[in-house]
């Protein structure tokens, strides 16, 4: 059975669509309704699967956002340890540096490196992360960092802790390679084209990288798993939150 959309705003007392230069777009209320409808559909699917299997099943879709560096070196190995036990749980991954993914309800969970998590989100501190200067372990003498080919984040990350450290400690160094993400910086370092400052977990994940000194002063940060308060009641989100926290804290 089909029903016109137009009467809905009058019944609800709110506008579901807003006119813009690009045409009509869904309002925040419409987005929230769509999200709740999707949750309801997921709950029905979970009930159907549970009836078929004769037991409670964690199901649904959870959207998780993180940076590409965290994705490759931390998140994916952690997911591989427990996700096979939840075949009815679907995961959508979004790589981004922006907390607004969660704030705008575009994501349910955020795995972030930060010392100042947003106050409107709730979560758990999983680990302390240090940065070190590293390079491919190829036997070359790289003791004089000022004379090395440097790989660094580009102008999209001018306030990154490692960029500020380099400007402070090695003011005469101009990077030979600039990248739009820390993941790309790590890949160039792994290829052996120069030195780079990377999180300690990247070196643990890629043993071909060798630390060239102690952790960088003033660059320590924290790894947080964050969500919105309204997501804590969702079994799918809460299950992933707990399992991911456990996996990352035990292998930090």
TrEMBL record:
It comes from the Bacteria. The keyword Repeat does not apply. GO terms for molecular function: DNA binding; DNA-binding transcription factor activity. Residues 57-247 form the LysR substrate-binding domain. This is LysR family transcriptional regulator. Belongs to the LysR transcriptional regulatory family. Keywords: DNA-binding, Transcription, Transcription regulation. The keyword Secreted does not apply.
């Amino acid at each position: 059975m089909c029903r016109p959309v137009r009467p809905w705003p009058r019944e609800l007392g709110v506008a579901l669509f807003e006119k813009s230069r690009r045409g009509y777009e869904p309002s925040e209320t419409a987005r929230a309704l769509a999200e709740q409808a999707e949750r309801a559909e997921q709950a029905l699917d979970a009930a159907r699967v549970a009836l078929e299997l004769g037991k409670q099943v964690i199901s649904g879709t959870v959207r998780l956002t993180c940076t590409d560096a965290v994705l490759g070196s931390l998140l994916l190995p952690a997911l591989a340890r427990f996700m096979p036990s939840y075949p009815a749980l679907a995961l959508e991954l979004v790589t981004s540096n922006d907390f607004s993914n969660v704030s705008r309800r575009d994501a349910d969970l955020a795995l972030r490196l930060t010392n100042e998590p947003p106050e409107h989100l709730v979560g758990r501190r999983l680990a302390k992360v240090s940065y070190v200067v590293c390079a491919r372990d190829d036997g070359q003498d790289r003791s004089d960092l000022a004379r090395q080919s440097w790989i660094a984040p580009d102008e999209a990350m001018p306030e990154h802790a490692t960029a500020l450290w380099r400007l402070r400690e090695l003011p005469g160094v101009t990077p030979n390679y600039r990248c739009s993400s820390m993941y790309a910086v790590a890949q160039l370092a792994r290829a052996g084209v120069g030195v780079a400052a990377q999180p300690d977990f990247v070196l643990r994940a890629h043993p071909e990288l060798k630390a060239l000194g102690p952790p960088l002063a003033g660059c320590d940060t924290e790894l947080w798993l964050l969500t919105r308060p309204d997501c804590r009641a969702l079994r799918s989100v809460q299950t992933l939150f707990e399992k991911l926290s456990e996996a990352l804290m035990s292998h930090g």
